[in-house]
Amino acid sequence: MLPPALDPHQFAYRKNRSTDDAIATALHLALAHLDKRNTYVRMLFVDYSSAFNTIVPSRLDRKLRDLGIDPSLCNWILDFLTDRKQVVKMGPKISAPLTISTGAPQGCVLSPLLYSLYTHDCVATHGSNAVIKFADDTTVMGLITDGDETAYRSEVDCLAQYSQDNNLILHTDKTKELVVDFRKKRQIQHPISINGSAVERVHSIKFLGVHITRDLTWEEHTNQVVKKAQRRLFHLRRLKKFGVGPKILGAFFRGTTESILTGCITAWYGNCTAQSRKMLQRVVRTAERISGCELPSIQETYKARCVRKALRIIGDPSHPNQKLFELLPSGRRYQSLRAKTQRMTSSFFPQAVRLLEKHTTPQPSTRTPQQQTVVTF
């Protein structure tokens, strides 16, 4: 159903896209820009109130037709969203029915997708900015050079106007800004205002499940996931006392705890400190002792997922980051990504290129890049 013209920086509800794609893209844009002289990055994390409830069906219908969606499907969606009846039931009493023709039904599996299509035209208007979206999570990135914030401030104004034009309620009190500035001589950045209200600037923020800080370090994130994972180990110990076998204990760990430790790991683990890595691995070792079964290390999981994600990106021409994986003229090696700082060197895309060189062998042929690459783990 999704048309090829859909904004590539909308990462929700699309094949071969996930939250770690959105996070890795945002971090790569920031780190690549910060590798240049006299630069900094401003990131605006926008909060929309009741986003799905604000969709205007007639406007959505026009946008779907502009995207080339089949008219019969557009008519069905328009009919689905208009003149909906709802009531409130409390015990035996039922309220009078209310007819609704705005928004998409809460809890409906189609609503997030319709919202993504509704906001497909919410894109950056300046080349030095980027708008990263995952459903209703919207992040505006301003890549500032030489202190010139004109384009970034204009982008924020455009977003505010876009929200107003499309009946989106921009919640200024919950919208936050993060400024990443590694310059030795930092200047005071004046706050951003939306509709006359100043946006709060924060030192850290939770972005799609990952804690991002203004210095782009990951101690806060690893501390949070380790605490959460350790609470899960309590249940693992209880199961052990009940006589549950190693095989089931291992499956329980993978389903309840490993997913916490390794969530979006490709985006952040590369820049973790040695101490943070030890903390993460300590949880795995504890789980091994409790369960009595061998578990993959965090480092092994990270490398395997980096290679797997890189191969998926290489095989997806519509992915916005496919261009970062270019074969050299020989067709046997990938071109290394330029990096001046350790932050950039250790981030996902440079790491993925190096891991591909180490664990895979590109095979020159007329097939697609994904088919050309043979994994040699």
Automatic annotation (TrEMBL):
What GO annotations for molecular function exist for this entry?
2-oxoglutarate-dependent dioxygenase activity; methyltransferase activity
In terms of Pfam families, this protein maps to: ALKBH8_N (PF09004), RVT_1 (PF00078)
Protein's organism: Gadus morhua (Atlantic cod)
Domain Reverse transcriptase: start-end pairs = 1-212
**Protein's recorded name:** Reverse transcriptase domain-containing protein
